[in-house]
Amino acid sequence: MRTPSFRQSMARIHGWMGLIAGWILFAMFLTGTASYFRPEITRWMQPEVRATPATPPVAAGSAFAYLQRTAPQAARWTLYLPDQRTIATRVFVRDGDVVKAKPRAKRPPRREVRLDPVQGTPLHARDTRGGEHFYRFHFHLQLPHPWGRWLAGACAMCMLGAILSGVITHKRIFVDFFTLRWGKGQRSWLDAHNVSAVVALPFHAMITYTGLVTLMVMYMPWPIVANYAKPALFASEAVGAAPEAPRSGTPAPLTPVAPLVATATRAWDGSPPAQIVVTNPNDANARITLFRTATDRLSARGGAITFSGVDGHTIASSPPPGPAARTAAVLLGLHLGWFADTGLRWIYFLLGASGAAMVGTGLVLWSRKRVEARSGVWGQRLVERLNVAVIACLPAGMAAYLLANRLLPADLPGRADLEVAAMFYTWFGLALLGCLRPAWRAWRESFAIAGTAWAAIPVVNALTTDRGLPHALAAGDRLFASFDLACLALAALLFFAARKTGKARRTVSASPTRRAEAQNALAHAG
Question: What is the helix (H) or strand (E) element at residue 273, kind and residue range?
C-alpha cells in the first residue's frame, strides 16, 4: 500500500477533524454570530420597554437609590449601566457572605432586575433571556458548568486544526477565491466550501484562536495555581481588582456614587464606567469598584478603580497592564467585538455567517463524497441525518425561540425558561421527524419549515405588539424595522435552500465512471 503524501495526510486530518466537531461548531458559529446583536435581540424581545436614555451618573444614582430601598444588607450589588445599545440598567443582587464562602461551594443565586435608568424603578416587561441565551449557548452549549465550556474548547481546537490542515491541503487558494460553479453536484459543494473558507480565512482563524484565549485560564490553570496561593491575588495583579474584605458588622452609610463615576471618568480621559460592583453595602468595609467601558477601544479590559464605600477615597486602581495582559485583552476584544460600530458589527455578522456556511458545506461535502462512492453506507446515513438535524433544523429552533416570546402570555410565570424549551423542542422534534423521511425530503421540508417560521416572526410581531413592521417604518423605529426585515431576509435564504435541495432529489445515482472517480478521491483525500 502506497504511503500517503504529506498533503494527503493533512486532507485526512482536515476531513475527520471537521466531521468530529462539525455539528457542534455549526451551532456555535450560528448562535455566536447572532450574539453580535444580543442587546438588540433583547430589546426586540421586550417590546414594552421604552426607557429614556440617561448618563452614567444619573443611571448609577437611581439604581443605588433603588437598591438602598430593596436590598440594603445584601452581600453584593452588581450594576451594568446602559449605553447606546442597552437602554435599561441591569442590577444583580447576591445575598450571603461572598468572602467566607468556600471556593467550590455553591453560591447563592443572583437576583436580576431591569431598571429605568432615570427613575430607578423596575421596568415592567415580559421575562426573557433575550439575546443572552444565544450568547450563553454559544460557549455553554446548554450543559452544566464547566462541561459545556470544556466541550466548546475541544471543538475549537478541532476547528483550529481543521483550518491549519485545510490551508496546507489547498493547492489553489487564490483560484478558489473566485471559483463557484452551480449545479455541478459534489463539485458545487466543494466550491461553496472553498469560497466560504478562503474569503474569510483570516477571520475564521482569528475568531477560533481568540475563542480559545478567552477561556485560557480555565483550560490551563496550572501557572496560576503554581504561583499564587489564591486566585484572587492573580486577579488583583492582572486586572487591578482589589481583594474583597469581609463584612465588619459595623453599619456605615454608603457614599454617593455620582461623584465616584465623575472621578473615574476623568481618570479614564472621558471614558465612562460600564459596570459597578459594590461589596458589603452599608458596612464599614464597603467597597465600590468601577470598571471602564470597553466599547471605545479594541481592548476588552479597560481597568478598574476601587473606592471606599464609606468616604469615597481611592483604595486601588488598575496598574498599567503588562504585555501578556494587554495581548490577552486585545484578543478578547477581537472575539467579542464590543468596540465595533454598526457597520463593523454587520461585517462581523456576515463573516460569522460565512463560518457557519463553511462548516455546513464541509459536512455536506463529506457525506456527498461517500454517497457517490457507495462507501460506508451506515456511517454515511448517520452523518446525513445529523447534517439535517443541525444545519436545517437548528434555524427553525432559533425562530421558535423568538416566536415563543410573542405567543406566550407576557405575565406567564417561568416564561423565560419556556422560550428556551420551545427552541429545543422544535429543534429536536423536527430532527426526529426528519429521520422518518427520505433524506432529500428531510432537507427540503426542514428548510421550508425553518423559512416559514422566520417569515412568520414579523407577522406575529405585528399582530401581538404595536411595534410591527408597518408601524416601525412609519415611526422611524429602526431597531424593530431592521429586525423584521432581517427575519424576512433569512426566510428568503432558507426558502432558497429548500428549493435547491428539492431539486437534488434522491442525491445521486452515479454512473460507473463518476463512482470510480469518487472512490479514488476518497482513497487519496480521506
Answer: strand 273-279
User: Per this entry, what is the length of the chain?
Assistant: 526
Strand 287-292 relative to strand 273-279, pairing: antiparallel
CB 271 within 8 A of CB 302: yes
pLDDT values of the chain reduced to their tens digit, one per residue, 526 residues: 567 777 777 778 777 787 888 999 999 999 999 999 999 999 999 999 886 788 899 999 999 999 999 999 999 999 999 988 888 999 999 886 555 545 445 555 667 889 999 999 998 889 999 999 999 999 999 999 899 999 999 999 999 988 888 877 776 655 555 555 555 555 665 666 667 777 788 899 999 999 998 888 889 888 888 888 877 777 777 666 666 778 888 899 999 999 999 999 999 999 999 999 999 999 999 999 999 998 888 888 888 899 999 999 999 888 777 788 889 899 999 999 999 999 999 999 999 999 998 888 888 877 777 655 555 566 778 888 999 999 999 999 999 999 999 999 999 999 999 999 999 999 999 999 999 898 889 999 999 999 999 999 999 999 999 999 999 999 999 999 999 999 999 999 999 989 887 665 544 444 444 444 444 544 444 4
For residues 511, 515, 516, 519, the Cα torsion angle rounded to the nearest 10 degrees is 180
Whether residue 141 contacts residue 24, with contact meaning beta carbons closer than 8 Å, is answered with yes
* Whether the Cβ atoms of residue 193 and residue 361 lie closer than 8 Å to each other: yes
Whole-number Å distance between alpha carbons of 48 and 88: 12
Sheet with 273-279, edge to edge strand ranges: 111-115, 89-94, 76-80, 273-279, 287-292, 304-308, 314-317
Cell 497592564 found at = 321
Report the alpha-carbon distance of residue 279 to residue 381 in Å, rounded.
Answer: 56
Asked if 155 and 24 touch (Cβ cutoff 8 Å), the reply is yes
Beta-carbon contacts of 231 under 8 Å, excluding residues fewer than 6 positions away, are 103, 224
